[in-house]
Design a protein that fits this description.
It is built from two helices and six strands, in the order βαβββαββ. By secondary structure, it is α/β, with parallel strands linked by helices.
Amino acid sequence: MLFLFACASQHPPSTFLRTDYKPWNDWMDAVVSVDITNVPIGSLATEAPFKQMNIVLNSIDPDYRIALEAKGVTRRQALWMLANQYGLAMTVVPDTNGRPSVISITNREIRHENVPLK
């Protein structure tokens, strides 16, 4: 199992999962600690600190296992680290009022192998 140990200096691009809806950005920019090991990606939204997040997986096996240990990062940073480590693309899908409602997670063209860090 791959463990991704994160440091707070790994900042996502300013546009990553950002919207014009302030409550969404405030929630995404809240500082959290993440400690997940061997979690199916389809269950990510059941893990603290992502419990209020709605996700949709596109062309991804919901049983694909992920891990992340990150202390004192924003939710946005944690998701950025997961996206980079596992070769994922994440985008915000708005509801009918234009407010963010779902994070769509898809594979990028280049898939990262699940191998131990050296």
